[in-house]
Design a protein that fits this description.
The protein has about 170 residues and is an alpha+beta fold. The protein has helices at about 1-30, 50-55, 145-170, and strands at about 35-45, 70-75, 85-90, 95-100, 105-115, 115-125, 130-140. It contains 3 helices and 7 strands. A hairpin with a 5-residue loop joins β3 and β4 (about 95-100). α2 (about 50-55) crosses α3.
Length: about 170
């Protein structure tokens, strides 16, 4: 009887692991490919791309114009490969890595969550109507649905007000 129970436990464990791996394969194959993405753009003549770049490159002072964060701290320069720590109000500190930086044009950063990544792309494009500022938030990964609800959707909802404040602050640089 004991031998049968041990075999049954092993069988059930293998069955569980197979189901788990099958589920993980499904999630990784079909959910990671489909990235959740939301953007917001503003066109303004109140600020230049140089002023916007200066605003964002000064990470240690983000808390002075972004009411949603307690602090942002960066050692070093605002360039690809560097990172900074950001503490949102009511949330834990997160490490944000700069993946791409093109001075006065764009930057892309990533925040890594358990089984998901959130990308934040900022672009500054000169148009005949003024400077077009675009912020795009993307989330991908097996647990992206959780991080969209907990973090990303709140960021996207705040973009219109936040971008207005960014323009107002950058115009003083």
């Amino acid at each position: 009887m004991i031998k049968y129970q041990n075999n049954m436990k092993g069988y059930l464990a293998r069955k569980f692991l197979f189901a788990y791996y099958k589920y993980t394969y499904y999630i990784c194959t079909y959910k990671i490919i489909n990235m959740w993405t939301k953007s917001h753009s503003v066109v303004t003549k109140d600020v230049t791309k140089e002023q916007m770049w200066k605003l964002f490159a000064d990470v240690n002072n983000w808390h002075t114009w972004d009411e949603g964060i307690e602090f942002a701290q960066m050692e070093g320069t605002f360039e690809k490969g560097n990172h900074f720590m950001l503490k949102p109000k009511g949330g834990p500190k997160v490490k944000v890595e700069l993946l791409e930086t093109v001075v006065n044009k764009s930057f892309l950063d990533v925040t890594k969550f358990p089984l998901a990544k959130m990308y934040d792309n900022h672009t500054f494009e000169e148009t005949t109507d003024g400077l077009k500022i675009t912020n795009t938030i993307s989330v991908k990964g097996p647990l992206s649905f959780i991080w969209i609800k907990l973090v990303a959707q709140n960021i996207v909802n705040a973009l219109p007000v936040d971008m207005k404040k960014q323009i107002e602050t950058a115009s003083k640089y």
